[in-house]
Structure prediction request, 190 residues.
Amino acid sequence: MLYEWFKVFHIVGWTTWMFGLMQLLRFLSPDGRSADLHEPVCGPVILERRTTAIRLYRTTATPGMFLTLTMGIGLVSVEPEVHSQAWFLVKMIFVALLIGFHLYFGRLLDIPEHPSVKIKRLHHVPGITLVPIVILAVCKNELPTMPVPGLIFFASLSTSGWQLLSALFLDPAQSGSKNQVLSQSEKGAQ
Prediction:
């Protein structure tokens, strides 16, 4: 029965952590626009978003991370044989990547300037780690080997990986985002 309670709160913590990280990325998005999409973001809006992001990081994402890790340790202590299983070791690599992202994101929030350019390059990390961690947790040692699930697994990883690589190595000015199109249309209207 203890295993089930550890698992329930591990999932609750994981959901809270992912929600916190993805909302942080939303609050500090590099779109440079306020909520109504017509008014450019100015100093007070950036300060308000940054304050909200710091609060979200401290009150949602970080407690979610600690709950996830604590309950995960509890799960492993109840079932110590998972230490030697390959799926668990691969999952821990992705979890370590996510923890590193979480801590790096906290460092970005300490920078007094708005770190939107850096965040634009990192906004795929939670999604890239989410898919394999969930697949490894659900399938464990029985990863999908049938053609359709295997193809879906490979497609989700390769799509997320391609998005991350393009965000890291492409110049943001060449990305053709909606904001550039909006900016150009606004310049044309003036």
Summary: The chain has one domain: 2-179. The first helix runs from residue 2 to 27. DSSP finds seven helices and no strands in the chain.
